[in-house]
């Protein structure tokens, strides 16, 4: 997959977009958030932030370097 990643590279989206996505989803402490193609995990970090405080947030990505970055 990674040799073809140039066809669909990871591009981080701005924080306001992540916040708007969670607002639209009405994320709450009762939710478990899954992020497919989580990249550096920024959406996951927003989901566990006190504004949404989801029960659990799980990031899934195929790129080991991005997973490592999100775990820092």
3D architecture notes:
The chain is of the alpha+beta class. The protein has helices at 15-25, 42-48, 64-70, and strands at 32-36, 56-60. A two-stranded parallel ribbon has the order 1-2. Strand 1 (32-36), helix 2 and strand 2 (56-60) form a beta-alpha-beta unit. Helix 1 (15-25) packs across helix 2. The mean pLDDT is 88.
- Helix percentage range: 25-40%
Secondary structural class: alpha+beta
What is the approximate shape? Answer: globular
Describe the biggest sheet? 2 strands, parallel
- Element-level helix/strand string: HEHEH
Major sheet strand order:
1-2
| Percentage of residues in strands | 5-15%
Spatial separation of the terminal alpha carbons: 24 Å
Radius of gyration: 13 Å
Q: Uncertain segments of ≥5 residues (pLDDT<50)?
A: none
Structure summary, number of beta strands: 2
Mean pLDDT, to the nearest integer, reads 88
Number of helices: 3
Ordered list of secondary-structure elements with their pairings:
Blueprint: H1 15-25, E1 32-36, H2 42-48, E2 56-60, H3 64-70
Parallel strand pairs: 1-2
Helix pairs in contact: 1-2
Brief sketch in words of this structure:
This protein has 72 residues and is an alpha+beta fold. Helix content is 35%, strand content 14%.
Keywords:
2 strands; 3 helices; 72 residues; alpha+beta; two-stranded parallel ribbon
């Amino acid at each position: 997959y990674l040799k073809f990643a140039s066809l669909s590279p990871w591009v981080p989206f701005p924080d306001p977009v992540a916040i708007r996505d969670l607002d639209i989803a009405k994320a709450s402490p009762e939710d478990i958030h899954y992020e497919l193609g989580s990249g550096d995990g920024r959406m996951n970090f927003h989901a566990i932030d006190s504004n949404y405080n989801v029960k659990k947030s799980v990031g899934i990505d195929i790129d080991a370097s991005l997973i490592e970055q999100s775990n820092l």
